[in-house]
Structures are given as structure tokens and as C-alpha cells.
Amino acid sequence: xxxxxxxxxxxxxxxxxxxxxxxxxxxxxxxxxxxxxxxxxxxxxxxxxxxxxxxxxxxxxxxxxxxxxxxxxxxxxxxxxxxxxxxxxxxxxxxxxxxxxxxxxxxxxxxxxxxxxxxxxxxxxxxxxxxxxxxxxxxxxxxxxxxxxxxxxxxxxxxxxxxxxxxxxxxxxxxxxxxxxxxxxxxxxxxxxxxxxxxxxxxxxxxxxxxxxxxxxxxxxxxxxxxxxxxxxxxxxxxxxxxxxxxxxxxxxxxxxxxxxxxxxxxxxxxxxxxxxxxxxxxxxxxxxxxxxxxxxxxxxxxxxxxxxxxxxxxxxxxxxxxxxxxxxxxxxxxxxxxxxxxxxxxxxxxxxxxxxxxxxxxxxxxxxxxxxxxxxxxxxxxxxxxxxxxxxxxxxxxxxxxxxxxxxxxxxxxxxx
Length: 418
Prior knowledge:
By secondary structure, this protein is α+β, with helices and mostly antiparallel strands. It folds into 4 domains: 41-62 and 344-417, conserved putative lor/sdh protein from methanococcus maripaludis s2 fold (Beta Barrel); 64-73 and 269-339, Elongation Factor Tu (Ef-tu), domain 3, CATH 2.40.30; 75-108 and 234-264, CATH 2.40.50.100; 110-232. Helices cover 37% and strands 33% of the residues. Strand 15 (297-311) and strand 16 (314-320) form a beta hairpin. Helix 2 packs antiparallel against helix 3 (175-232). The longest helix is centred in the middle third of the chain and has 62 residues, at 109-170. The chain is rod-shaped.
């Protein structure tokens, strides 16, 4: 006979307990979803892991604290004009050199042979010019001699013609003889005219030929002088007085034409090179005031040059240092204040922080009054200095803002602060 098995108290209430537990879970999930739908995506955060700053009001000094590097204002580069092999190194890097002082001696066999060849060409051309001039002078003398002989013959024939005319009138001399003398006279007169014409033509031709030869010789002389100058340029000299800050040569080393050998820095003329974030590219203008902090005191200067090319999110400006600004050395770093000129007496200020890299200054997390949450809010920021952002809209005096990095929760609409 079958025996009825009685249920224990646990078995009777187990099913009800399971159903109640599931109901609690479903209710909690529903509540969480309703909260998420109402307030957006939420992120739990330890309040000690973030930085909170208050919105304050005060004077906004539109200036940047920067650190610049001292570089020479004027640098003269030493380049080779002919190239060659380094034969002698006459000075060492870092020395002060005078204008015209020999620095490096190069040797160039090909250039020396070229100069010798040009000298031979010039000598040959000059000899040919002298021979041509000598031949022309001889020809000119010969023509003058011919003219003298012709004029002498004309003079004799004229006298004989006059005498023969008288004798023919007396019947002493035959008329044929008189005609021969007259013919000879006409011949020599015509010959004189031809010789004068020849002399004029040769004189004109000689002038052109001599001018061409002289121009050719002058050109050869210039080429020779240019080659000699190149030969002289193998001895590198200091073009100005200054410090030889670089000298990149070693004995026996070959240098190509136009190679950089070193540089000379003009003493007591320096400038500061400053690198700024590209954020300030539209705010920096030439002639902006700069306060420079030196050991002897602060001095003022002006922005002299702006290089607007952006490299690694930064651009470069230059500031000319006054002559005799103090004991300044090349490569030294100096603190400066760049005065941007947008100062305000009563401005809303927000402390600078890493939040800007995530939001770009377009939004921030603002703490609620009870400090338990921080809600994302759109704002507008203006200029910034070393310590603060200028608040244009979206925040009120006394509100607290999360100013640390938003890198891990920048997609959340609100932060739950524990």
C-alpha cells in the first residue's frame, strides 16, 4: 500500500521565495533603466579621484608665462665655393675670430690645373694680339712709305711735264715724249687715290679686329681672375668678427662645393625663440610687449617675428633682446611674460585643467548642490592665461566644476560621485 509523503515547511515556501527574489531583481532593473532613460548614461566615480574647482570672479590678466631660448640674432654661415680636401684646420670651434682671419685651408688639384690652363690660354691670346698689332703697324708703315714714293713720283713728273711742255714748244722735244710723261703723271695720281682708299679700309678693319682681340683678351683675363679667386677661396677666411660657434671639418676630409663648414655668431646680439600652443596663433601679433626676467632685473622687449608654421601643435615666435641686456649666453633659457593685451577687471574665471583636452572647452561636468552628482553642461570659454580660462557663458559664480581629465568617462551624461 502506497504511503503519502508529507511536504516539509521548506518545500512549501521555497517556490514563493524564488518568485519574490526574481520580482525584486526585475523591479531594480526597471528602476535603473528608468533612471538611465531620464538622466542619460551614468558613470560611477570616486570623488577623491577627480579635481573640483569653483568658478570665481576677478581680474583676468591676458598674459602667458613662457620659457625661451637665447640664440644669436645674426649668424654668418661658412660655405665652400670651390670644394676640396681639408689640408689645415687653423682655429678651433668656440674661439673668437677677427674679420679676415684664416680658418681652414683646402686643396684642389683640379682647380689648380684649371688655373694653369687658363693662364696659358690668356698668354697665347695676348701674344697673338701683340703679333696682330705689330703686323698692322708694319702694314700701316708700308702704306705710308708707298704714299711717300707715289707723291715723290708725282712731284717729279709734274716738274718734268712743265719743262717738257716748254721744250716741245721750241721744237726741241717730241710731242710723244710729252704724252708719255702726262700718262705717267695720271697713273701715279690714280695710284695715290687707290692707296689712300686702301689705307682707309685697312684702318677701319684694323680697328674692328683689334677691338675683338682686346675684348677676347679681356674676357680671358676675367676668367683667369675668377679661377684665381676660386683658388684663393681654398683658404677659408672669417667674413666678420665673432664667435666661431661651429666648425665641422677634419683634416683629410673632402668637402663638396657649397658644403657647410661652420658658422660665426655676431657677439652681443641675441634674440629669444619661444614656442607657443597653436591655440594662440590668432592672438599673437608682431610688436606685442614681452617682459623678460633676468638676474639683473626685468626688461621689456617686443615680438619681432612670427613663424606661423605649426609643428607638433606649436608655432614659434622671436623676440629681439636689447643690446647690453646683461650677461646672456647662447643656449640659455629665460622666463618671459607675453602680454596678449586682453586684460579684464571683473571676469568669471575657471581654473585650467586637463578637461580641456577632452571637451575642447565646449562642455564640462558641473556638480549638483548636494555634491552627489555632476551633470554634463555646454559652456563657452574665451581666452586663457597661465592659470585660468575666461568663462563667457554656461557657468555662474560659485558653481563647482570637474576640471581633471575626462578621458575615461567623456561619453557619460552624468557622474555619480561616491
